[in-house]
Write a structure and sequence with these properties.
single chain; 144 residues; mainly alpha; 0% strand
Length: 144
């Protein structure tokens, strides 16, 4: 069930982003939006490089190779989801409307759904995850 829900979360994230792209509401000439989106892109690259050559999964599926706790994973458990949400919400903020807000909420809801599906699966595979959770935040340090 968790894997199916995680696919729904993934589709929500992709659907929200594609909707924003179709409306041409992702990118903005605002220096603030550009700065936030560059920071999000750098965070995503840092997380992917730290995560290594593991494959990407459509469904929640913990990968072999041990629990990754270095790089951005030292501070937040889901830096890629955080980066996607930061990137999208910077664009939403630069083009605020109810439509963009709803699409941004779809991306955020999809990311949160995936997190709630993935965390129990990762904890079952890696017992040290319980300790790791006590020293990191899910997406936003000191907030969530």
């Amino acid at each position: 069930m968790k894997k199916t829900l995680s696919i729904i979360g993934y589709l929500g994230m992709v659907g929200g982003l594609l909707g924003l792209l179709a409306l041409r509401k992702v990118f903005s000439p605002s220096p603030l939006v550009i700065s936030l989106q560059v920071a999000a892109l750098l965070l995503m690259i840092w997380a992917r490089v730290t995560f290594g050559r593991r494959s990407l999964h459509l469904a929640a599926n913990p990968t072999a190779g041990g629990l990754v706790t270095g790089g951005p994973y030292r501070y937040i458990r889901h830096p890629i989801y955080a980066a996607v949400c930061l990137f999208v919400w910077a664009g939403v903020g630069g083009h605020w409307s109810w439509n963009t807000g709803l699409l941004g909420a779809l991306v955020l809801a999809g990311a949160v759904l995936r997190i709630f599906c993935e965390e129990p699966l990762v904890a079952a595979r890696y017992p040290e995850y319980a300790q790791y959770k006590t020293t990191t935040w899910r997406m936003i340090p000191y907030v969530y």
